[in-house]
Specification:
It is globular and about 30 Å long. With 62 residues, the protein is mostly helical. 2% of the residues are buried. Helix content is 34%, strand content 0%.
């Protein structure tokens, strides 16, 4: 899960080139991504994301 589609990432290329069975999904903004991550964690739903440290998301979600 990515934040804003305006962020520069190589995520789509990584998924494609490594032939991973993943789909890159954009939350729309960093705030929306954080909200979605917290919701998935609360519901114990799997998700994959990464953050540059230091970041407020470096801390463990509830």
């Amino acid at each position: 899960m990515d934040g804003s589609p305006s962020y520069v990432t190589n995520d789509k290329a990584l998924v494609t080139n490594l032939k991973l069975n993943y789909q890159v999904v954009f939350a729309g903004s960093e705030a929306a991504q954080i909200t979605q991550m917290k919701q998935f964690a609360k519901e114990k739903k799997p998700f994959l994301t990464y953050w540059y440290a230091p970041s407020g998301c470096s801390r463990r979600s509830p």
